[in-house]
Structures
1.
Amino acid sequence: MDNKNINVLEVKGLSKQYKKGVYASQGVTFNVRKGEIFALIGPNGAGKTTTIRMISTLLKATEGDAIVDGHSILTEPEKVRQCITYLPDEAGAYKTMTGTRYLEFMAGIYANDANQIKEFVERASEISELGDRLKDKIGSYSRGMIRKLLLARAMMPKPALAILDEPTSGLDIINALDIRRMIKKLSSQGMSFLLSSHNMLEIEYVSDRVGIIAKGHLLEVGTAEELKDKYGTRNLEEVFEKVVLSR
Ligand SMILES: Nc1ncnc2c1ncn2[C@@H]1O[C@H](COP(=O)(O)OP(=O)(O)O)[C@@H](O)[C@H]1O
Ligand SMILES: [Mg+2]
């Protein structure tokens, strides 16, 4: 079946004012298709986290709506929460638990019965690629290993949409490459992703389409190739520069 034309997310004019008259995001509109990796890219303070947190139902939108797998964040937030997972930037995990214990603990929250707990833990263990290190305490893990564990946890319930805020930030190149490859692999198995990143070069390799966001405005949406062609540039960083300067 061709999923690529079904939208798993429709964002319709989402705006947020933390303070009256000051927009952290304004009229943000885009779609994410089933099986797609969509990345919001822009510098720090652009409004990525604000937009993502509204879609994740953690932050109330000032204006607009988003439809996640057919459910409105305004009128059906519980339904939305059931079909997404959200991985915040700078998320941590319980240092005194082993990796396996952490996955069991999280499976206990997501799963309906003992069989499903087992299934979820097996699935997440495999996704994490941590092997025997899952038996060790999380306190002994590197940043990269913790991120892999958190990614595996996020994918455990097979969410209709996985929302990952800056999934590779603070990682060295090897671990960032691993995370990118893991996301690509999950996407090829049919999972859908909304990512954010301030690293425009890196995101070019992982996303099917990107949205360029600056000062709360979504300025361009397209594939990296389309945007590079349109602006006659070699990479997305240069596209960003031109998009922002042209306004
Ligand atoms: N809780 C908050 N209260 C007031 N302003 C905020 C809050 N969170 C973020 N902002 C402001 O909103 C804007 C967008 O921030 P954010 O969404 O975190 O951007 P990004 O994730 O792209 O770095 C910034 O100007 C930021 O200072
Ligand atoms: Mg952010």
Note: The chain has two domains: 1-83+161-247, 90-158.
2.
Amino acid sequence: MHFDVLIRSAQVLDGTGAPPFQADIGIRDERIVAIGELGQHTATASLDATGRYLAPGFIDVHTHDDTNVIRTPEMLPKLSQGVTTVVVGNCGISASPVSLEGKVPDPMNLLGRVEDFRYPSFAAYAAAVDAAIPSVNVAALVGHTSLRSQVMNDFARPASMAEIDAMQALLARALDEGALGLSSGLAYRNAFHAPTAEMKPLVAAVGKAGGVYTTHLRDEFAGLLDAMDEAFATARCGEVPLVISHLKCAGAGNWGNAHRALDRLDTAARHQRAHCDCYPYTAGSSTLDLGQVSDEIEITITWSEPHPDQARRPLKAIAADWGVSLLEAARRLQPAGAVYHNMSEDDMQQVLAHPLSMVGSDGLPNDPHPHPRLWGAFPRVLARYSRDLGLIPLSEAVRKMTSLSAANFGLTDRGVIREGAFADLTLFDLETLEDTADYDIPIAPAHGIELVMVNGVIGYRHGAATGERAGRMLRRSRHLTHRMEDSP
Ligand SMILES: [Zn+2]
């Protein structure tokens, strides 16, 4: 057999959690066609991977890259981490189906400016992604807050029956056109007033289509467990698989509760398909939320529209300079972005290590001084938490970013190294692997990612993009089931 690319003598982590094994991998067109001892075959390009690990390309299940995959299709923050697929549209905010005039509702402003919201249908968005040919594959959720923005003028109340019907129609069409499911961001002020009764008919539409429901919970602080129960009930009612976004115990008063939250997740998962995603840091980041302003934690401002000169400074220092309270300073800074150091390391590690958690960066690509997770989340899990701290075996860490993610989001023939699967691959050197982005210098590519292939095309090699991009829109093709026992 003749291969387009032959990767020789790699330590293969196939994504399933199985221990690594040494093999050659033959690739033709966009797929893996052979695995084993392939020395007798010819190849157009052949590369020696001795001493390196070859994994399925990482799937970033929690992103806000909606408009960036079109505007900056190189997608270096993700490609340089070994990510080959991004799931966009999380936390209730998506670029489609949306058209906007005037002000962009919070936190949709994380995705871009008003002119970036120009995809009135999911089909139009998907076509724009395909036309941009990003370096990574893209799969997309529809955001509940985005749906609200299309049918409501006032977000500080529940939607009316007529508005729910209108959102349901928009959602059903998007699901028909290939959206993976629905996301919500119930903690944000523009979705907080949506009661469970508003969510249920929308989630039911997702269940009917065989999609997935992801939710940034209504409360990640003292009310975490109740918010989890609400999410389980909503998903159960719609017979839809659930992913709790960036599960965390936020706020100093809530530290030490991860085992309670994970117990709750385990219990629910006995009866319904339920998972979570997690990023390997103890700080969160989003728009500046007055409800989260507290002197118990450190808050750093990353951007501010009225006071751009205050970016990168602690809120405490700004308030002291201005001679005002933290809350008043925060009010004056808005609209703004912030990093909140609001988790405990032990809680985060428990969530990351749990078998039902996947890795998602939650990176904010439009923040001028982003949280380091944008450039570092995936290598950090492998290097710091698996190799250095031994929190999880390497094969398990890779499973959390590949096969588990593909199964939960219905991405067929991805997230696994086997004959017939798409050739989305990441080759890395575990010895030199390191996330280099930190809170001071957050825009920095990881070390040790040696090669990244997307759909059979090498997009990244020797620390730089090759200029060849082969990502595409991944439209929903599989009907997901809500019961744990019939997992794909
Ligand atoms: Zn979120």
Note: The chain has 15 helices and 22 strands.
